Amino acid sequence: MQLLSNRKRIVILGGGCGGLVAATHLGRKLGKHHDVILIDRRSDHVFMPAFLFIMLGRRQPKDISRSLGHLQKRNVKVVQSEILGIDPSRQEVTVQNQKINYDYLIVSLGLQTRPDLVPGFAEASLHPWEMETAIRLRDALSSFRSGRVVVGVPLGPYRCPPAPYEAQWMLDGYFRERGIRDRVEIEYFTREAEPTGEAHDPVVWMDAESKQRNIKQNYEFVVRSIDPEKKVVQGLYNYNLPYDLLVMVPPHRPAQVLLDSGLADTETGIRVDYDTLQTKWDNVYAIGDCADMPASKAGGIAHQEAHTLAHNLAVEITGKGRPVDLWLHTI
Asked: Global pTM?
């Protein structure tokens, strides 16, 4: 019988891909003898990669949402609340109406979309990086008959780097299925330079795939602002791109609570040890998009980090098994 004083409390912030995997693994391994708590402002886990399918009307919101309450079957307590503060010195998280102490903290709060960082963005772009705007884009696409569709990315980090290419290709296929592709121009812009290298390199292959689909690629285009009335994306050096429908990735930044608490060091997130995912605070870890790692901001990365971290924490807490190295599979 384990003594009560030996119980540990593991608090996980965020119910996205990383938080969900970490909570499930730790609940199974530790939940009967320790306290595993997941905190999220939403009641559901939403599978964000499927927003592209929402965009085309091939999925409905209910198809990609599952109640976080199901985690209770895995010995995980779910607290639905806004996270108002994090104090690593006190080992305390403040939510609405209470403070929750922890022995171990896993931060998996992703990145937040910040349309306000590009003037005119909120009025101009319909994009599949949030559920609400993906639905609005779906409705706009259903009535779109001809014109120029511009897909693009801003400066800074954003969720799922390959997704802008996927969006181009899915839109190309969508318009072909409707028999109007010849009446629709699709263009893409990015701040990156035109890729060079071997044909099998991922970025070279993606560039070639887009060009093969007759999608014009605009490289080294840095967005300054958007004029929603004139329907023009304004870049540096007076280089402008007109559009009829704009599908631009919104700027992303760490959650405000991470900035306010001092956990997030840069616009790319919380600095962590690349091997352990530990931050500069004892027993505080960061995974997924909010971790400043030299890896893609993608759900697959968050999944791998969460699985490794949860395993190693279970080993540390129980003294059973062996820790494993973090080995990410990514492009």
From this structure: 0.93
